[in-house]
Write a structure and sequence with these properties.
Layout (H helix, E strand, L loop, with lengths): L3 E3 L11 E3 L7 H5 L12 E6 L12 E9 L6 E9 L5 E8 L8 E4 L7 E7 L2 H9 L4 E7 L7 E4 L1 E2 L3 E2 L2 E12 L13 E5 L2 E3 L5 E3 L7 E9 L6 E7 L11 E3 L6 E8 L5 E7 L4 E10 L1
Antiparallel strand pairs: 1-2, 3-4, 3-11, 4-5, 5-8, 6-7, 6-9, 9-10, 12-13, 13-22, 14-21, 15-16, 17-20, 17-22, 18-19, 18-21
Length: 295
């Protein structure tokens, strides 16, 4: 794992460089790749993996995500992958990138190895022609994870290009709502209460669930909002779910009843793309919108 200095980002109101701690989740391209990435601005191809996407349908409860990076470099062309998955009936036995549009099955073109119980990361050399085909038309390829009891596919997702990079940052075309404590008439975050929040998925304007922070991301760029605050005032701390104890500093503060306040900031994520929030002094509802990520 590498410490990474993050350039100041005026787009989210930051004026000084910060450092992602070593607990942040490194991606395979950075940690395992040939370091050609240092010369190439790269955009990950991402896929949300669901059992319903398989043909025929796979694991009904299974869900996952994939982030794939490709560096075209002649005979040294390299593909790197970061996968996360959960709720599949048994440990994965095979994963790969296959040729095929949505609704169609196809042949394996790149095997994705190093499969763990809930995640996988790795890099391998591939034929430049195959890699170029994937980059040119990612929608015609899909990531597929198979298990011993579902040998034809447990979860699957079509590849698509993520937002282009600005340095290490990737700004989403539209914000995605990852968390709203008001959903399903949920309770406010109480003083001294801590909750673990996944930023891996978010809801778009149509209400669909899509990838917000892909596997391999080291940090999220978010807008943190407090609403329906309780007097006399309080604060919320936002930090990586990898941390056991909350930091000494707050992320947002309020000083009255029924205030609506927001701040945009960066936050390190853990290996599942999750963060924690901890309340202080008084209760409030909390909303987290993902507007980008660092990869």
């Amino acid at each position: 794992m590498h410490k990474k200095a993050l350039a100041a980002m005026t787009a989210v109101g930051l004026t000084a460089a910060i450092a992602i701690p070593t607990i942040a989740f490194g991606n395979a391209r950075r940690d395992l790749g040939s370091f050609n990435f240092e010369k190439v601005a790269n955009t990950p191809l991402t896929a949300k993996l669901l059992g319903a996407n398989e043909v025929p349908p796979g694991d009904a409860d299974g869900v996952g995500a994939a982030a794939v990076t490709i560096d075209i470099n002649g005979p040294n062309t390299e593909v790197c992958w970061d996968l996360t998955y959960r709720n599949i009936t048994s440990p994965p036995s095979q994963a790969g990138i296959r040729a095929g549009a949505a609704g169609a099955n196809g042949a394996l073109v790149i095997s994705l190895t190093n499969l763990g119980p809930s995640s996988a990361s790795g890099c391998s050399l591939v034929a430049a022609a195959v890699a170029q085909q994937i980059l040119d038309a990612p929608q015609n390829f899909y990531v597929d994870i198979r298990t011993s009891d579902l040998p034809n596919g447990a979860i699957r997702g079509q590849l698509s290009a993520g937002p282009p990079p600005a340095g290490e940052a990737h700004m989403l075309a539209s914000p995605l709502r990852a968390y709203d404590s008001r959903d399903n008439a949920g309770p406010k975050l109480a003083a001294n209460e801590t909750r673990v929040i996944s930023l891996a998925d978010g809801k778009n304007g149509a209400g669909g669930s899509v990838i917000a922070v892909p596997p391999g991301a080291t940090a999220a760029i978010v807008t943190l909002t407090v609403t329906e605050t309780v007097a006399p005032g309080g604060f919320v701390k936002l930090y990586s779910a990898a941390l056991v104890d909350p930091p000494a500093t707050s992320s947002i503060n309020w000083a009255g009843t029924n205030q609506n306040l927001a701040v945009s900031t960066q936050v390190a994520v853990d290996g599942t793309g999750s963060v924690k929030i901890t309340g202080g002094a008084a209760s409030t509802h909390v909303i987290i919108d993902v507007i980008g990520y660092l990869f």
